[in-house]
Amino acid sequence: MIIVTRIGVTDEEVDHIRERVEALGLRTHISRGDTHTVIGCIGDEEKLTSAPLLSIPGVRAVHPVMKPFKLAAREFAAGPSRIPFGSGSIGGEEFVVVAGPCSVEGPEMLFETAEAVRSAGGLGLRGGAYKPRSSPYSFAGLGLRGLEILAEARSRSGLPVVTEVMDTRQVEEVAGHADVLQVGARNMQNFSLLTELGKVHRPILLKRGMSATVRDLLLAAEYIMKQGNSQVILCERGIRTFETATRNTFDLAAIPVLKSETHLPVVADPSHAGGRRDLVAPLSFAAIAAGADGLLVEIHPDPETAISDGDQSLTFDEFHTLMKGLRPFAAAVGRTLPPVREVASTAAG
Ligand code: PEP
Ligand code: MN
Fold first, then answer.
1. Fewer CB near the terminus (10 Å): N or C of the chain?
2. Rg (CA), the chain
3. What pLDDT does 342 receive?
4. Residue 44 sits in the same domain as residue 130
């Protein structure tokens, strides 16, 4: 259930509405828009329906949320949610590019990559320490050592770090080292993991499962939000279809659909979607044009020797070119990008 206030409602009136709802035993989520405020009510809605809410000063309307996902639904907030990220946020005017290797392979390659990300105008560093791999014989990541390297890369570069958490047993450890916890496609419906992540005070980057519908993705976000963590960033990373020309099929339409269904930020991962280096730029341009709030891109100092996902990883020079190429698209949709330094790092480029 949501309570919509009248235009120009005062802070005192909002506080009073919140107190009345909480006195009925429900939790509230306040979302302030430019003109009005939405007070989302979480809990036993029966108690609300019998209360004379319209007589509380400042209340304009009371609506049920008709979607199966309530807290993630667009109408639950007065406008798009901004999730804090480093010194800025995701979901506002700034287009946020997070880049880095598929796997953290060691300290030097990660520090070098962080510098390349920063100098090209990237706002976050990605890198897997715990890696979900299709084969149990493949490299599964450096684990705790990888997390320590990520934390060191953060303190050297100032970039917030994003890394995957695969299991409920890793949540505390990963949250102790990373700024944003990634849930991989293979874990999107790991409901015990989602529930644990709902108790963490860190933003969660939730990747769409490879056979998940948009509704499944939003319900997975709801699992996290229901526990109290409303900082969820959704990621379209391609789904499995009969098409074999690309690693996955990039569901471009999912971006505007998600933007109309939810207030949560939406980013795209063109690297896993296409699975090929040459597709990263066109898919990125399409994503920003379609309304994405950011990108998650794989880059590597020497993709040829990458331990995982080398074929889809950009060199530093290619990443620099991508960041420049995004500018006209960003301008066309009214988004901003941080400045790119003219001199690119060219390690093994
Ligand atoms: C990754 O980001 O490296 C990854 C494993 O992605 P996904 O879960 O989308 O396959
Ligand atoms: Mn990868």
1. C
2. 21
3. 57
4. no
Residue 62, classified by CB atoms within 10 Å of its CB into exposed (0-12), middle (13-18) or buried (19+), is middle
Tokens, residue 245:
């020309």
Query: Ligand 1: which of 206, 236, 272 to mutate, judged by most atoms within 8 Å of the beta carbon?
Result: 272
User: Is-contact 267 297, C-beta < 8 A?
Assistant: no
Q: What is the pLDDT of residue 34?
A: 85
Distance 4 CA to ligand 2 centre (A): 42
> 261 C-alpha vs ligand 1 centroid, how far in Å?
24
Q: Looking at ligand 1, which atom is closest to the CA of residue 237?
A: 9
Q: Is any atom of ligand 1 closer than 6 Å to the C-beta of 184?
A: yes
For the beta carbon of residue 330, count every other beta carbon within 10 angstroms: 17
In a domain, 308, yes or no: yes
Domain carrying residue 244: 83-332
What dihedral angle (degrees, nearest 10) is formed by the CA atoms of 180, 185, 190, 193?
Answer: -10
Q: Which two tokens stand for residue 181?
A: 């916890």
Query: Could you say which residues of the chain have pLDDT below 50?
Result: 344-349
**From the CA of 185, how far away is ligand 1's center (Å)?**
6
Alpha-carbon dihedral sign for residues 212, 256, 272, 83: negative
- Contact 102 CB / ligand 1 (< 6 Å): yes
Q: How far apart are CA 214 and CA 256, in angstroms?
A: 11
In this structure, are 61 and 90 located in the same domain? no
Alpha helices in 24-161 (DSSP H): 45-49, 107-120, 144-157
- Cβ of 238 below 6 Å from ligand 1: no
Condensed to tens digits (0 to 9), the pLDDT of residues 176-218 reads 999 999 999 999 999 999 999 999 999 999 999 999 999 999 9
- Residue 61 belongs to a domain with what CATH number? 3.30.70.1140
Q: Which ligand is nearest to the CA of 210?
A: 1
pTM over 0.90: yes
Residue 307: both structure tokens together: 């331990």
